[in-house]
């Protein structure tokens, strides 16, 4: 079958020790049976490895940081689109999603660029600071949490929680604290990088299991693959993982997608206790960096999302293969200074 | 009791639990007992089978069998069979 040419812009090209999902998403898109993608990489930093991975990324452009605001982002995307005629954008960073969701309608109307994103309501109600309420609303077990806006709140934390606790940033980073001093230390380190508030979460003992899933926006689960982290880096990221056959976890996922009518990709992070209870730690409203495992298990989630973004009907994947593993590796690319110079000075490569 | 249905052991003694992602290695005798437990063989049947095949006294085997079953229980590889 002849594949259809299509231009897809993808963010999250930071394939580093705390990797963005972009490269996995691109590898999945290149495995599509229906599309022949031209990949436009959208980057924030000149050191994002994906910019230089020319076998995966055809052309890269720098875009403004999320904090610069949606008007600047729209202006830059229009500029890129005038040259590249983008069909679909797949954003992959938590911190940029607010802007892309805000721009979804305008990008479609003004540039005919399609996306397949959760609604602003879906995006907001699963925010880390709102997750406990979210759990109550949708009947999910969520560890108790509390937001901290200043170090003055530490005494309340000591009163309301028993140690250890998990100190989390608004978008990224999570560190375990065993006393007040460590909370203060983590509070300062994380807030400098990711801003306020900081979320304090009850620590639940167990093994970490995650799910990558996609919903069609009507309540139907198109695909879901559960994974247990087998090797975790000092940043808490999975360096290897294995796909699971866990009906209970899949049921929790499909119930969640059904009740929220989730639209688009998501990663669910759980702790499974020794009593086989599942505590929801986070909902990330995007693909995880390990989404390529789903492709290895017979479910190409980025390809399915692409089709839905283009308005095609997508059937749910009937099953996934279990016992498939992923293992990451690091790889030194040799880059000519000219390339670095080009992306640094002209904002494109 | 028997081994849960979705748990398999390979010819090399590699055991994989697809629900938890845990994997284990069993030696040849462990493998043999594991396979018998997959068929819901009783403790008496397993004991008789092993005593017939290997030179081991009953008391020693029962102690080792008890330890092995406890490990299987600990890792949630066993399930109880409902009695009629």
Topology:
The complex is a heterodimer of chains A (349) and B (84).
Chain A lengths: L3 E7 L11 H8 L5 E9 L15 E4 L7 H15 L3 E3 L3 H18 L8 H6 L5 H7 L7 E4 L5 H7 L4 E4 L5 E4 L2 H15 L3 E5 L4 E10 L4 E12 L5 E6 L3 H14 L2 E10 L5 E7 L7 H5 L4 H9 L15 E3 L9 H10 L3
Parallel strand pairs in A: 1-2, 1-4, 2-3
Antiparallel strand pairs in A: 5-8, 6-7, 6-8, 9-10, 9-12, 10-11, 11-14, 12-13
Helix pairs in contact in A: 1-10, 2-3
Chain B lengths: L1 E2 L4 E2 L4 E3 L6 E3 L2 H11 L4 H11 L4 H17 L3 E2 L5
Antiparallel strand pairs in B: 1-5, 2-3, 3-4
The second-level CATH architecture of chain B is: Orthogonal Bundle
Average pLDDT of chain A:
93
Count of strand segments of chain A = 14
Per CATH, what is the topology of chain B?
Answer: Arc Repressor Mutant, subunit A
Of all chain pairs, the largest interface belongs to: A-B, 13 and 6 residues
Low-confidence sequence ranges of chain A: none
What CATH architecture of the domain at 4-114 and 332-346 in chain A would you give? Answer: 3-Layer(aba) Sandwich
- Number of H- or I-type helical stretches of chain A: 11
The chain-level structural class of chain A is alpha+beta
Rg from Cα of chain B: 13 Å
Order of helices and strands of chain B: EEEEHHHE
Low-confidence residue ranges of chain B: none
**Biggest sheet statistics of chain A:** 6 strands, antiparallel
